[in-house]
Protein backbone atom coordinates (compact mmCIF):
# COMPACT_ATOMS: atom_id res chain seq x y z
CA UNK A 1 0.00 0.00 0.00
CA UNK A 2 2.86 2.38 0.73
CA UNK A 3 4.36 1.71 -2.70
CA UNK A 4 0.98 2.20 -4.38
CA UNK A 5 0.46 5.52 -2.58
CA UNK A 6 3.96 6.64 -3.59
CA UNK A 7 3.25 5.76 -7.22
CA UNK A 8 -0.05 7.64 -7.10
CA UNK A 9 1.66 10.75 -5.72
CA UNK A 10 4.50 10.62 -8.27
CA UNK A 11 2.53 12.10 -11.24
CA UNK A 12 1.05 14.77 -8.96
CA UNK A 13 4.58 15.61 -7.85
CA UNK A 14 5.70 16.02 -11.48
CA UNK A 15 2.84 18.45 -12.12
CA UNK A 16 3.61 20.30 -8.89
CA UNK A 17 7.29 20.74 -9.73
CA UNK A 18 6.44 21.87 -13.28
CA UNK A 19 3.94 24.41 -11.97
CA UNK A 20 6.43 25.71 -9.43
CA UNK A 21 9.14 26.05 -12.09
CA UNK A 22 6.82 27.90 -14.47
CA UNK A 23 5.65 30.29 -11.78
CA UNK A 24 8.72 30.93 -9.68
CA UNK A 25 11.42 30.83 -12.36
CA UNK A 26 11.04 33.53 -15.02
CA UNK A 27 13.95 32.22 -17.05
CA UNK A 28 12.42 28.73 -17.11
CA UNK A 29 9.05 30.15 -18.13
CA UNK A 30 10.58 32.22 -20.94
CA UNK A 31 12.60 29.20 -22.05
CA UNK A 32 9.35 27.28 -22.28
CA UNK A 33 7.39 29.81 -24.37
CA UNK A 34 10.24 31.28 -26.43
CA UNK A 35 10.17 28.55 -29.14
CA UNK A 36 6.52 29.30 -29.88
CA UNK A 37 7.34 32.37 -31.98
CA UNK A 38 9.43 30.21 -34.31
CA UNK A 39 6.54 27.82 -35.02
CA UNK A 40 5.01 28.44 -38.49
CA UNK A 41 1.47 27.88 -37.19
CA UNK A 42 1.91 30.47 -34.44
CA UNK A 43 3.55 32.92 -36.86
CA UNK A 44 0.63 32.43 -39.25
CA UNK A 45 -1.94 33.02 -36.49
CA UNK A 46 -0.13 36.18 -35.35
CA UNK A 47 0.17 37.40 -38.94
CA UNK A 48 -3.55 36.91 -39.57
CA UNK A 49 -4.48 38.62 -36.32
CA UNK A 50 -2.20 41.63 -36.77
CA UNK A 51 -3.08 42.03 -40.48
CA UNK A 52 -6.78 41.93 -39.73
CA UNK A 53 -6.43 44.58 -37.04
CA UNK A 54 -4.42 46.90 -39.34
CA UNK A 55 -6.74 46.41 -42.34
CA UNK A 56 -9.79 47.04 -40.18
CA UNK A 57 -8.34 50.28 -38.84
CA UNK A 58 -7.17 51.44 -42.28
CA UNK A 59 -10.47 50.68 -44.07
CA UNK A 60 -8.88 51.11 -47.52
CA UNK A 61 -12.18 50.53 -49.33
CA UNK A 62 -13.90 53.25 -47.30
CA UNK A 63 -11.05 55.72 -47.91
CA UNK A 64 -11.09 54.93 -51.63
CA UNK A 65 -14.84 55.49 -51.91
CA UNK A 66 -14.53 58.71 -49.95
CA UNK A 67 -11.79 59.92 -52.33
CA UNK A 68 -13.94 58.91 -55.33
CA UNK A 69 -16.90 60.91 -53.99
CA UNK A 70 -14.68 63.94 -53.41
CA UNK A 71 -13.29 63.78 -56.95
CA UNK A 72 -16.76 63.42 -58.44
CA UNK A 73 -18.01 66.42 -56.49
CA UNK A 74 -15.18 68.49 -57.96
CA UNK A 75 -16.08 67.63 -61.53
CA UNK A 76 -13.73 64.67 -62.00
CA UNK A 77 -16.64 62.32 -62.48
CA UNK A 78 -14.87 59.82 -64.71
CA UNK A 79 -11.88 59.51 -62.39
CA UNK A 80 -14.16 59.25 -59.37
CA UNK A 81 -16.27 56.56 -61.01
CA UNK A 82 -13.18 54.63 -62.05
CA UNK A 83 -11.74 54.84 -58.55
CA UNK A 84 -15.05 53.76 -57.02
CA UNK A 85 -15.28 50.81 -59.43
CA UNK A 86 -11.87 49.48 -58.48
CA UNK A 87 -12.07 50.27 -54.76
CA UNK A 88 -12.59 46.59 -53.89
CA UNK A 89 -9.63 45.42 -55.97
CA UNK A 90 -7.47 48.19 -54.53
CA UNK A 91 -8.45 47.25 -50.97
CA UNK A 92 -7.67 43.60 -51.71
CA UNK A 93 -4.26 44.49 -53.13
CA UNK A 94 -3.42 46.65 -50.11
CA UNK A 95 -4.65 43.91 -47.78
CA UNK A 96 -2.47 41.34 -49.54
CA UNK A 97 0.54 43.65 -49.38
CA UNK A 98 0.01 44.26 -45.66
CA UNK A 99 -0.39 40.53 -44.96
CA UNK A 100 2.79 39.62 -46.85
CA UNK A 101 4.79 42.34 -45.14
CA UNK A 102 3.45 41.46 -41.70
CA UNK A 103 4.37 37.80 -42.32
CA UNK A 104 7.97 38.82 -43.04
CA UNK A 105 8.07 41.06 -39.98
CA UNK A 106 6.60 38.38 -37.68
CA UNK A 107 9.27 35.91 -38.88
CA UNK A 108 12.05 38.43 -38.21
CA UNK A 109 14.53 38.27 -35.29
CA UNK A 110 13.15 41.58 -34.00
CA UNK A 111 9.73 40.05 -33.35
CA UNK A 112 11.36 36.97 -31.82
CA UNK A 113 13.22 39.21 -29.38
CA UNK A 114 10.06 41.20 -28.70
CA UNK A 115 8.18 37.95 -28.02
CA UNK A 116 10.74 37.07 -25.35
CA UNK A 117 10.58 40.57 -23.82
CA UNK A 118 6.78 40.61 -23.74
CA UNK A 119 6.60 37.16 -22.17
CA UNK A 120 9.25 38.03 -19.64
CA UNK A 121 7.24 41.09 -18.64
CA UNK A 122 4.02 39.11 -18.74
CA UNK A 123 5.39 36.46 -16.41
CA UNK A 124 4.69 38.59 -13.35
CA UNK A 125 1.19 39.19 -14.64
CA UNK A 126 0.70 35.46 -15.19
CA UNK A 127 1.52 34.91 -11.55
CA UNK A 128 -1.12 37.48 -10.65
CA UNK A 129 -3.60 35.80 -12.98
CA UNK A 130 -3.01 32.40 -11.40
CA UNK A 131 -3.25 33.86 -7.93
CA UNK A 132 -6.40 35.76 -8.92
CA UNK A 133 -4.88 39.25 -8.68
CA UNK A 134 -5.19 42.14 -11.12
CA UNK A 135 -4.73 42.45 -14.88
CA UNK A 136 -1.77 43.14 -17.09
CA UNK A 137 -0.15 41.74 -20.21
CA UNK A 138 -2.04 38.49 -19.57
CA UNK A 139 -5.76 39.14 -19.11
CA UNK A 140 -9.15 37.48 -19.40
CA UNK A 141 -11.35 38.59 -22.30
CA UNK A 142 -14.58 36.95 -23.54
CA UNK A 143 -13.91 33.78 -21.60
CA UNK A 144 -10.33 33.43 -22.90
CA UNK A 145 -6.94 34.03 -21.30
CA UNK A 146 -5.26 36.35 -23.80
CA UNK A 147 -1.87 37.95 -24.46
CA UNK A 148 -2.02 41.64 -25.41
CA UNK A 149 -0.44 42.36 -28.81
CA UNK A 150 -0.03 46.15 -28.53
CA UNK A 151 3.81 46.03 -28.67
CA UNK A 152 3.69 43.82 -31.78
CA UNK A 153 1.27 46.19 -33.55
CA UNK A 154 3.57 49.11 -32.75
CA UNK A 155 6.60 47.31 -34.17
CA UNK A 156 4.71 46.31 -37.33
CA UNK A 157 3.52 49.89 -37.88
CA UNK A 158 7.08 51.17 -37.53
CA UNK A 159 8.43 48.60 -39.97
CA UNK A 160 5.66 49.23 -42.53
CA UNK A 161 6.19 53.00 -42.31
CA UNK A 162 9.93 52.48 -42.79
CA UNK A 163 9.14 50.59 -46.01
CA UNK A 164 7.19 53.54 -47.40
CA UNK A 165 3.68 52.52 -46.32
CA UNK A 166 3.28 55.64 -44.19
CA UNK A 167 -0.52 55.49 -44.15
CA UNK A 168 -0.28 53.16 -41.15
CA UNK A 169 0.83 56.16 -39.09
CA UNK A 170 -2.82 57.26 -39.18
CA UNK A 171 -3.80 54.19 -37.17
CA UNK A 172 -4.32 55.10 -33.51
CA UNK A 173 -2.73 53.08 -30.73
CA UNK A 174 -4.48 49.71 -30.55
CA UNK A 175 -4.00 46.71 -28.30
CA UNK A 176 -5.63 43.58 -29.74
CA UNK A 177 -5.33 40.25 -28.00
CA UNK A 178 -4.09 36.76 -28.86
CA UNK A 179 -5.97 33.92 -27.16
CA UNK A 180 -3.90 31.42 -25.20
CA UNK A 181 -6.49 29.16 -23.58
CA UNK A 182 -9.99 29.10 -22.13
CA UNK A 183 -10.56 31.01 -18.92
CA UNK A 184 -12.31 28.02 -17.38
CA UNK A 185 -8.93 26.29 -17.36
CA UNK A 186 -7.48 29.34 -15.61
CA UNK A 187 -10.02 28.93 -12.82
CA UNK A 188 -8.95 25.32 -12.47
CA UNK A 189 -5.31 26.39 -12.64
CA UNK A 190 -5.88 29.00 -9.93
CA UNK A 191 -7.40 26.41 -7.62
CA UNK A 192 -4.64 23.90 -8.31
CA UNK A 193 -1.95 26.57 -8.10
CA UNK A 194 -2.87 27.58 -4.60
CA UNK A 195 -2.79 23.98 -3.44
CA UNK A 196 0.20 22.74 -5.44
CA UNK A 197 2.26 25.83 -4.70
CA UNK A 198 2.00 24.92 -1.02
CA UNK A 199 2.84 21.27 -1.67
CA UNK A 200 5.46 21.58 -4.42
CA UNK A 201 8.25 20.46 -2.06
CA UNK A 202 6.22 18.20 0.21
CA UNK A 203 4.74 16.02 -2.55
CA UNK A 204 8.00 14.77 -4.14
CA UNK A 205 9.55 14.10 -0.73
CA UNK A 206 6.41 12.34 0.48
CA UNK A 207 6.29 10.18 -2.65
CA UNK A 208 9.92 9.11 -2.18
CA UNK A 209 9.40 8.45 1.52
CA UNK A 210 6.36 6.28 0.81
CA UNK A 211 8.21 4.29 -1.84
CA UNK A 212 11.25 3.85 0.40
CA UNK A 213 9.11 2.87 3.39
CA UNK A 214 7.21 0.38 1.27
CA UNK A 215 10.43 -1.30 0.17
CA UNK A 216 11.82 -1.26 3.72
CA UNK A 217 8.83 -2.89 5.44
CA UNK A 218 8.31 -5.51 2.74
CA UNK A 219 9.34 -9.06 3.55
CA UNK A 220 11.17 -9.35 0.25
CA UNK A 221 12.98 -6.06 -0.25
CA UNK A 222 14.29 -6.85 -3.71
CA UNK A 223 10.88 -7.89 -5.03
CA UNK A 224 9.34 -4.77 -3.50
CA UNK A 225 12.02 -2.63 -5.18
CA UNK A 226 11.20 -4.22 -8.53
CA UNK A 227 7.52 -3.47 -7.93
CA UNK A 228 8.26 0.11 -6.90
CA UNK A 229 10.34 0.71 -10.02
CA UNK A 230 7.71 -0.77 -12.34
CA UNK A 231 4.92 1.04 -10.50
CA UNK A 232 6.76 4.35 -10.84
CA UNK A 233 7.24 3.75 -14.57
CA UNK A 234 3.57 2.79 -14.95
CA UNK A 235 2.44 5.95 -13.15
CA UNK A 236 4.47 8.08 -15.56
CA UNK A 237 2.93 6.20 -18.48
CA UNK A 238 -0.52 7.00 -17.10
CA UNK A 239 0.48 10.66 -16.76
CA UNK A 240 1.49 10.66 -20.42
CA UNK A 241 -1.90 9.20 -21.38
CA UNK A 242 -3.64 11.84 -19.25
CA UNK A 243 -1.72 14.61 -21.03
CA UNK A 244 -2.77 13.17 -24.40
CA UNK A 245 -6.42 13.10 -23.30
CA UNK A 246 -6.15 16.65 -21.94
CA UNK A 247 -4.66 17.73 -25.28
CA UNK A 248 -7.65 16.37 -27.16
CA UNK A 249 -10.10 18.04 -24.75
CA UNK A 250 -8.24 21.36 -25.04
CA UNK A 251 -8.14 21.32 -28.85
CA UNK A 252 -11.84 20.49 -29.06
CA UNK A 253 -12.70 23.34 -26.69
CA UNK A 254 -10.86 26.07 -28.62
CA UNK A 255 -12.96 27.55 -31.49
CA UNK A 256 -11.06 27.94 -34.75
CA UNK A 257 -12.18 31.57 -34.83
CA UNK A 258 -10.26 32.19 -31.61
CA UNK A 259 -7.12 30.16 -32.34
CA UNK A 260 -6.38 27.90 -35.34
CA UNK A 261 -6.22 24.20 -34.48
CA UNK A 262 -2.58 23.81 -35.55
CA UNK A 263 -1.52 26.84 -33.49
CA UNK A 264 -3.48 25.57 -30.48
CA UNK A 265 -1.80 22.17 -30.80
CA UNK A 266 1.68 23.72 -30.97
CA UNK A 267 0.85 25.95 -27.99
CA UNK A 268 -0.25 23.00 -25.85
CA UNK A 269 2.65 20.77 -26.88
CA UNK A 270 5.19 23.49 -26.16
CA UNK A 271 3.78 24.40 -22.76
CA UNK A 272 3.71 20.79 -21.51
CA UNK A 273 7.02 19.69 -23.03
CA UNK A 274 8.87 20.02 -19.71
CA UNK A 275 6.25 17.82 -18.05
CA UNK A 276 6.83 15.22 -20.75
CA UNK A 277 10.60 15.50 -20.29
CA UNK A 278 10.20 14.96 -16.54
CA UNK A 279 7.88 11.98 -16.84
CA UNK A 280 10.19 10.35 -19.40
CA UNK A 281 13.14 10.73 -17.03
CA UNK A 282 11.25 9.23 -14.10
CA UNK A 283 9.89 6.44 -16.29
CA UNK A 284 13.42 5.50 -17.37
CA UNK A 285 14.68 5.74 -13.77
CA UNK A 286 11.87 3.44 -12.61
CA UNK A 287 12.70 0.89 -15.30
CA UNK A 288 16.43 1.04 -14.51
CA UNK A 289 15.77 0.52 -10.79
CA UNK A 290 13.45 -2.41 -11.52
CA UNK A 291 15.94 -4.02 -13.91
CA UNK A 292 18.83 -3.52 -11.50
CA UNK A 293 16.84 -5.00 -8.62
CA UNK A 294 15.83 -7.98 -10.74
CA UNK A 295 19.34 -8.82 -11.95
CA UNK A 296 20.74 -8.66 -8.41
CA UNK A 297 18.16 -11.21 -7.30
CA UNK A 298 18.24 -15.01 -6.87
CA UNK A 299 16.31 -15.95 -10.03
CA UNK A 300 17.94 -18.34 -12.49
CA UNK A 301 18.11 -15.64 -15.15
CA UNK A 302 19.74 -13.13 -12.79
CA UNK A 303 22.22 -15.68 -11.40
CA UNK A 304 23.11 -16.90 -14.89
CA UNK A 305 23.62 -13.35 -16.14
CA UNK A 306 25.87 -12.42 -13.23
CA UNK A 307 27.85 -15.63 -13.64
CA UNK A 308 28.33 -14.93 -17.33
CA UNK A 309 29.56 -11.41 -16.64
CA UNK A 310 31.95 -12.59 -13.91
CA UNK A 311 33.30 -15.32 -16.16
CA UNK A 312 33.82 -12.83 -18.97
CA UNK A 313 35.61 -10.36 -16.72
CA UNK A 314 37.65 -13.21 -15.20
CA UNK A 315 38.72 -14.28 -18.66
CA UNK A 316 39.81 -10.71 -19.46
CA UNK A 317 41.75 -10.53 -16.20
CA UNK A 318 43.42 -13.88 -16.82
CA UNK A 319 44.33 -12.86 -20.36
CA UNK A 320 45.90 -9.66 -19.08
CA UNK A 321 47.85 -11.52 -16.42
CA UNK A 322 49.14 -13.99 -18.98
CA UNK A 323 50.57 -11.02 -20.87
CA UNK A 324 52.19 -9.56 -17.78
CA UNK A 325 49.39 -7.17 -16.75
CA UNK A 326 48.79 -7.53 -13.02
CA UNK A 327 46.97 -5.16 -10.70
CA UNK A 328 49.08 -6.29 -7.76
CA UNK A 329 48.33 -4.78 -4.33
CA UNK A 330 45.70 -2.46 -5.84
CA UNK A 331 43.79 -5.42 -7.18
CA UNK A 332 43.92 -7.21 -3.82
CA UNK A 333 42.75 -4.03 -2.03
CA UNK A 334 39.87 -3.59 -4.48
CA UNK A 335 38.91 -7.23 -3.98
CA UNK A 336 38.95 -6.89 -0.22
CA UNK A 337 36.73 -3.78 -0.21
CA UNK A 338 34.74 -4.53 -3.36
CA UNK A 339 31.38 -4.47 -1.58
CA UNK A 340 32.04 -1.06 -0.01
CA UNK A 341 33.27 0.24 -3.36
CA UNK A 342 30.10 -0.96 -5.09
CA UNK A 343 27.90 0.76 -2.52
CA UNK A 344 29.95 3.96 -2.70
CA UNK A 345 29.79 3.95 -6.50
CA UNK A 346 26.02 3.54 -6.58
CA UNK A 347 25.62 6.26 -3.95
CA UNK A 348 27.91 8.62 -5.88
CA UNK A 349 26.00 8.19 -9.12
CA UNK A 350 22.74 8.61 -7.22
CA UNK A 351 23.96 11.94 -5.84
CA UNK A 352 25.07 13.04 -9.31
CA UNK A 353 21.59 12.29 -10.63
CA UNK A 354 19.86 14.09 -7.76
CA UNK A 355 21.99 17.24 -7.99
CA UNK A 356 22.20 17.33 -11.79
CA UNK A 357 19.46 19.95 -11.78
CA UNK A 358 17.60 19.15 -14.97
CA UNK A 359 18.29 15.53 -15.92
CA UNK A 360 17.22 14.23 -19.30
CA UNK A 361 16.52 10.73 -20.56
CA UNK A 362 19.89 10.77 -22.33
CA UNK A 363 21.76 11.83 -19.18
CA UNK A 364 20.01 9.12 -17.13
CA UNK A 365 20.99 6.45 -19.65
CA UNK A 366 24.56 7.77 -19.79
CA UNK A 367 24.79 7.70 -15.99
CA UNK A 368 23.43 4.13 -15.92
CA UNK A 369 25.93 2.99 -18.53
CA UNK A 370 28.81 4.70 -16.73
CA UNK A 371 27.70 3.10 -13.46
CA UNK A 372 27.80 -0.33 -15.09
CA UNK A 373 31.24 0.43 -16.50
CA UNK A 374 32.60 1.48 -13.09
CA UNK A 375 31.09 -1.59 -11.40
CA UNK A 376 32.61 -3.72 -14.14
CA UNK A 377 36.00 -2.12 -13.57
CA UNK A 378 35.76 -2.89 -9.84
CA UNK A 379 35.10 -6.53 -10.72
CA UNK A 380 37.85 -6.56 -13.35
CA UNK A 381 40.54 -4.87 -11.25
CA UNK A 382 39.75 -6.77 -8.08
CA UNK A 383 42.10 -9.76 -7.76
CA UNK A 384 41.41 -12.46 -5.16
CA UNK A 385 44.35 -13.48 -2.95
CA UNK A 386 46.37 -16.49 -4.02
CA UNK A 387 45.03 -19.73 -2.64
CA UNK A 388 46.86 -21.03 0.40
CA UNK A 389 48.31 -17.66 1.44
CA UNK A 390 46.27 -14.57 2.21
CA UNK A 391 42.92 -16.20 1.78
CA UNK A 392 43.25 -18.69 4.68
CA UNK A 393 44.51 -15.92 6.95
CA UNK A 394 41.55 -13.67 6.19
CA UNK A 395 38.67 -16.10 5.85
CA UNK A 396 39.87 -19.41 7.30
CA UNK A 397 38.29 -20.86 10.47
CA UNK A 398 40.21 -20.82 13.77
CA UNK A 399 42.92 -23.42 14.10
CA UNK A 400 43.71 -23.76 10.38
Explained architecture:
By secondary structure, the chain is mostly helical. It folds into two domains: 1-110 and 185-297, no CATH class; 309-388, no CATH class. The protein contains 18 helices and three strands. The chain has helices at 2-24, 26-33, 40-58, 60-73, 77-85, 87-106, 109-130, 150-162, 183-199, 202-217, 221-253, 261-271, 273-295, 300-322, 328-336, 338-354, 361-381, 390-395; strands spanning 138-141, 144-148, 177-182. It has a three-stranded antiparallel sheet with strand order 1-2-3. A hairpin with a 2-residue loop joins strand 1 (138-141) and strand 2 (144-148). The longest helix has 33 residues, at 221-253. The two termini are 51 Å apart.
SSE blueprint and pairings:
Layout: H1 2-24, H2 26-33, H3 40-58, H4 60-73, H5 77-85, H6 87-106, H7 109-130, E1 138-141, E2 144-148, H8 150-162, E3 177-182, H9 183-199, H10 202-217, H11 221-253, H12 261-271, H13 273-295, H14 300-322, H15 328-336, H16 338-354, H17 361-381, H18 390-395
Antiparallel strand pairs: 1-2, 2-3
Helix pairs in contact: 1-2, 1-9, 1-10, 1-11, 1-13, 2-7, 3-6, 3-12, 4-5, 4-6, 10-11, 11-13, 13-17, 14-17, 16-17
